[in-house]
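We were asked to recover a plausible sequence for a given structure. The inputs and outputs are reproduced exactly as logged, with field labels preserved.

PROBLEM: sequence recovery
POSITIONS: 244
GIVEN STRUCTURE:
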């Protein structure tokens, strides 16, 4: 059976590492000691998501630092169980236990780090106005709740499992809406975001993503501790915050 490129690359990396250790042993040098910390063990995460999980300049890999632990844990589970589709993420988490995934989620959730300033809004005034309306007020006629109804009044998320929407690149947000519309991204049932994505037009998605990406973060960008009002619809990914 032919080996894939990634298998060959991993094999070569292993051979190179073994050679380095062998040479070090022959020279009488001590092997490098790596501290057993979550910061070290999550280097595979920060290789894509940026230093300390702050996101990368390219913009497609989102920030994970400071996101609610419940949200991060849910996404790791979704990748492991196939509800979200990303080969690299699935490869990393497919054999990890719930307990270890919770450790990873708790670690990144604990990082309180500053955000980079947002890019200027590159959209016509009418598009920006539509994006702001959807985010702040929604569209009751189409049963579209406002983003703030679930993601918090400041759009920085709500514990235990609602993520913030600010600080996300426009293209990334558009891609996630597209993934929900096509079923490539799913959450535990009832999947409220999949329902919402089906009610949005392409113009809605583009406008909301552009407006959200241009918003500056408030001085306190931490997720809120709880929702002020009952959620407008059931969300399986946040069972503790279902409508009461």
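RECOVERED SEQUENCE:
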């Amino acid at each position: 059976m032919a080996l894939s490129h990634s298998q060959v690359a991993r094999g070569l990396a292993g051979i190179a590492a073994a050679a380095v250790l062998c040479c070090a042993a022959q020279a009488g040098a001590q092997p490098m000691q790596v501290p057993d910390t979550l910061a070290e063990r999550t280097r595979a995460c920060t290789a894509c998501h940026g230093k300390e999980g702050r996101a990368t300049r390219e913009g497609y890999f989102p920030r994970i630092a400071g996101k609610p632990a419940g949200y991060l844990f849910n996404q790791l589970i979704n990748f492991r169980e196939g509800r979200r589709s990303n080969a690299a993420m699935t490869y990393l988490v497919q054999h990890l236990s719930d307990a270890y995934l919770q450790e990873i989620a708790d670690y990144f959730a604990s990082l309180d780090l500053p955000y980079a300033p947002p890019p200027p809004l590159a959209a016509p005034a009418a598009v920006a106005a539509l994006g702001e309306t959807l985010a702040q007020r929604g569209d009751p006629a189409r049963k579209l709740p406002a983003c703030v109804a679930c993601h918090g009044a400041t759009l920085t998320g709500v514990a235990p499992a609602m993520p913030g929407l600010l600080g996300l690149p426009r293209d990334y947000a558009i891609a996630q809406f597209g993934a929900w519309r096509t079923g490539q991204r799913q959450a535990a049932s009832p999947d409220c975001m999949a329902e919402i994505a089906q009610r949005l037009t392409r113009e809605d998605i583009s406008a909301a993503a552009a407006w959200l990406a241009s918003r500056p973060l408030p001085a306190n960008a931490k997720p809120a501790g709880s929702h002020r009002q009952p959620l407008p619809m059931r969300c399986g990914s946040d069972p503790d915050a279902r409508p009461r």
